[in-house]
Amino acid sequence: MTTLTDPPKEHFRLSMLLYDTRYRSATIQVIALMGFMLLAAWLLSNTIQNLEALGKPVEFGFFSEPASYDINQRLLEYDSRDSHLRAALIGLLNTLVVAVLGCITATVIGVLVGVLRLSSNWLVSKIMTVYVEMFRNVPVLLWIVFAMAILIESLPAPRAFRGEDPAATMDLFNTVAVTNRGVYIPEALFSRSLGDIHFFGDSALRFDVSLDLIAIIVVLAGSIFAMRKVIAWANRTQEQTGDRPKTWHILLGLFFVPMLTLLVALGFHLGYPELKGFNFTGGTHMRNSLIALWLALSLYTAAFIAEIVRGGILAISHGQTEAAAALGLRQGRIMRLVILPQALRVIIPPMISNYLNLTKNSSLAIAVGYMDITGTLGGITMNQTGRELECVLLLMLVYLCISLSISAVMNWYNERVKLVER
Amino acid sequence: MKKSVFLGAATVATLAAGAAMAGTADDVKARGKLNCGVTTGLAGFAAPDANGEWKGFDVSMCRAVAAAVLGDPNAVEFVPTTGKTRFTALASGEIDLLARNTTWTFSRDVDLKFEFIGVNYYDGQGFMVPKELGVSSAKELDGATVCIQTGTTTELNLADFFRTNNISYEPVPIETNAEAQQQYLAGACDVYTTDASGLAATRASFEDPSAHILLPEIISKEPLGPLVRHGDNEWGDVARWTLNALISAEELGVTSANINDIASSTDNPEIKRLLGTEGTLGEMLGLDAEWAQRAIAAGGNYGEIFAKNIGEDTPIGLARGLNAQWTDGGLLYSPPFR
User: Fold this and answer.
1) What pLDDT does A299 receive?
2) Residue-level pLDDT at B1
3) Looking at residues A384-406, what average pLDDT do you find?
4) Which of B100, B110, B112 to probe by mutation at the A interface, max A CB count within 10 Å?
5) Residue in B7, B107, B186 closest to A50 by CB
6) Any idea where the Solute-binding protein family 3/N-terminal domain is (chain B) (predicted)?
7) How are beta strands B144-149 and B191-195 bridged, if at all?
8) What is the pLDDT of residue A89?
9) Which of A72, A278, A379 sits opposite B172 (nearest CB)?
10) pLDDT tens-digit profile of A124-145?
11) Number of other CB atoms surrounding residue B40 within 10 Å
12) pLDDT value at position B15?
């Protein structure tokens, strides 16, 4: 028989930090942390001291100096008199463009290839195997350079479009020009434009937002909201009466009428590319460097994503497929409604690191002369100012921020789709 | 300096190591080899020949310095550098001398902490276009696509030129000369711009050089010269006076062919001082008396090096122009050896 008594109150003594197992691990960790921080601080102060001894103190003043170089692909207005900071911003946007485009295409291609690789059709699954093995076993830099070389060597130069009997002609009813300098596609123009709103005045971070674009987005959102209301009403009616009212004409009207009205009101028309002087002018110019980088990064990453998707699907027990088939679902629906939603839980986490890889691989852009942030801040700016440490530190910080943002978004999505467990 | 050893290990080496170097000349002698930074391959200036041996105008500069310091023009380790890596390579101590068509500018000299030891080629940025474009002046290039090597002063000059003339252009930044050639020949750009000497060298390597012309505009001053790290004046002096010896030798009529005869027979006191048969110039440099003799014998005097690698009789076909001796109306002017 035991009697429970309160353990005697022990007073905390300093020696317990070392001899009491409850505190010991904390003590060791604190000491290790302090040691690590001291080491880091020592390295840092050492770097700064040595740089000062070299006559190169760490300072970021050069950012406000004029950059003095031009950048071909710029999403915001920029010229050579703008500051290094603005040049870095332009580069950052170029990085984001190719990363976002790449992630989207890589996902689409990857999911498609991953599913098709499991196809019961021998030829299809073997072709997909060849694709996957080919792309993931060759360094991505080679794919980027290879894509660029193909674009440059195989497509006609703009001057081939000139003359009475040109060697090359524009595609798609004379609206798209495919040249070895890039693809020129028609651009959206508004003859009664609402203008732009300017942000941040004259600073390096200034940007304009087109009011036309905002109007289009607002109208689109309104239409979709109204359409969802209609669908909800149809669902309710179906539940109450058993008959589903005909809604497709209302939906079409809700989608197209406001949009068309707005476009007519804004004077929407397309600007077509046109050969003028050395180059095509007008239209939107998608440069070779962007296309090559985008293509190579997406195809390369898609090969990895395909394997992840295949793994995710294989992780779902075959019984699920058989059960769904027993319920009378067809092949496609089994995949879409039963297998993929469950497979997603396995797929998403490794997918995050592939998105991160793609984004970081985009720093190979300079191989094809695409001016991403590594090309501007970590390339020309670093070269012209000689501020290697500052530029590289900043570059690392930028990539860190981009990667952490991607992770945050994907983790949030992962939380949403993952199995709710009790 | 103890600290910087650790720092070097901590991968910030590129910057720190520069401070750790003191006597480059001693390092080179101890190593028995000169580490010389050159281009990754530009015909006439620095490129390996069919036997894998580096040849060219800049290469000759490296060999002359190696001959002066080490007594062997072949005791050179050539380190190919790109426009982007060259300064880091020099600052970090990976190379002792950079002879790579590098423009002498204020900020490189002062801010990047390098020391230009002189000018071995007076150049300027030019434009090359295919003849069939029918362009005769750079001012007609409105809207053209321009291939440009990134990491050089050329992209700054280009931006300034088009801006002052108020014409637009589309820059295509390219990492190396070889890629630029590929894009230019495929018509992915209308114009290729870099230093006029580089353009001539590139054009010479084309299948049909006559189908391309260099435009008359030279839009910048590009004094190209070898450079060393700031702060090691002894080594800077060795490199500077080796270059001056090559230039003076041409002025004084000393060639690689007649150097042995002239050394023993001449009465000209300046030649005697240059070749070390009189005075103690070599000793002042920390070298032996015959340093300049060896430097000149390695590849010839400046004129010989020019003629052999990039002169009018070579495929590059550059005229002396500004690079003639001052006595012939050029800019080459070596301070006196006394």
Assistant:
1) 96
2) 41
3) 89
4) B112
5) B7
6) 33-262
7) parallel
8) 93
9) A72
10) 999 999 999 999 999 999 999 9
11) 16
12) 41
Complex ipTM value = 0.77
What confidence tens digit (pLDDT) does each residue in A187-231 have? 888 888 888 888 887 787 888 888 888 999 999 999 999 999 999
> DSSP assignment of A1-32, as one string?
-----PPPPPPP-TTHHHH-HHHHHHHHHHHH
- Which residues 295-324 of chain B have a CB within 8 Å of chain A? none
Q: How far apart are CA A202 and CA B194, in angstroms?
A: 34
Between residues 49 and 88 of chain B, which touch chain A (CB distance below 8 Å)?
Answer: 83-84, 87-88
B134 close to A (CB below 8 A): no
**Residues in A touching B151 (Cβ below 8 Å):** 379-380, 383
DSSP 3-state of A323: helix
Q: Is the pLDDT of residue A60 over 90?
A: no
Please give the interface size between A and B, counted as residue pairs whose CB atoms are below 8 Å apart. Answer: 129
Spell out the residues 6+ positions from residue A33 whose beta carbon is closer than 8 angstroms to its own. none
Mean pLDDT of B273-291: 91
Q: Are strands B169-174 and B125-130 parallel, antiparallel or unpaired?
A: unpaired
pLDDT on residue A1 = 53
> Nearest CB to B151: which of A55, A71, A380?
A380
Nearest to B19 among A54, A149, A383 (CB): A54
pLDDT at res. B303: 95
The string over A153-184, giving b where at least 16 C-beta atoms fall within 10 Å of a residue's C-beta and e elsewhere, is: eebbbbbebeeeeeebebeeeeeebbbbbbbb
In 3D space, the residue among B305, B146, B171 whose CA is nearest the CA of residue A78 turns out to be B171
Say if the Cβ atoms of A279 and B186 lie within 8 Å.
no
pTM of model > 0.90? no
Task: Kindly report the nearest CA distance between residue B173 and chain A, in angstroms.
Answer: 5
Q: Do B171 and A70 touch (CB under 8 A)?
A: yes
DSSP symbol at A272: P
Number of CB atoms found within 10 A of residue A326's CB:
8
Task: Give the integer Cα–Cα distance in Å for A351 and B37.
Answer: 43
Q: Which two tokens stand for residue A233?
A: 């009403």
Q: Say yes or no for a CB contact (<8 Å) between A369 and B172.
A: yes
Q: What is the pLDDT of residue A4?
A: 63
A68: chain B residues, CB-CB within 8 Å:
156, 159-160
Q: For B75-117, what is each residue's pLDDT tens digit?
A: 999 999 987 788 888 988 899 999 998 889 888 898 888 999 9
